[in-house]
User: What shape does this take?
Amino acid sequence: MDRQADLLAVATSLRITPLVDPQSFTRDTMVLLCLDPATGIRIDFIFSFTPYERQAIDRAARISISHAQVRFATPEDLIVHKMLAARPRDHEDVTGILLKQPHLDLAYVRHWLVEFAAATSQPLVKQFETLVKSLQ
Assistant: This one.
């Protein structure tokens, strides 16, 4: 988070406004939630420190929007993030992604869920497999 001040300066120059207290919320979650008032689009800036996060950023799809390159998480990485958040809504989102994306790299998803499950003692793999099986 040593670049938080830089990010806030850029956000301010672009007239993007934080939706949370940048100091406490970002310190606790490693996410800075913002809003572009001109478009109403919410922007989540995620501070990355782990090998997984670096890999997810490298894997992000680059899409042109109004002459700008914007990076979006792959469906696989979105599933990993949603499984980590583990709210009922996140599990619903994972189900939707699984239904709409038939060619997912589930081995990649399972690999990272195993890693995070070991680190957090959460039943991430079991929860994911339950979602997958519910669709069969």
Summary: The mean pLDDT is 90. Strands lie at 17-18, 31-36, 41-46, 61-65, 68-72. Residues 4-73 form one domain. The longest strand covers residues 31-36.
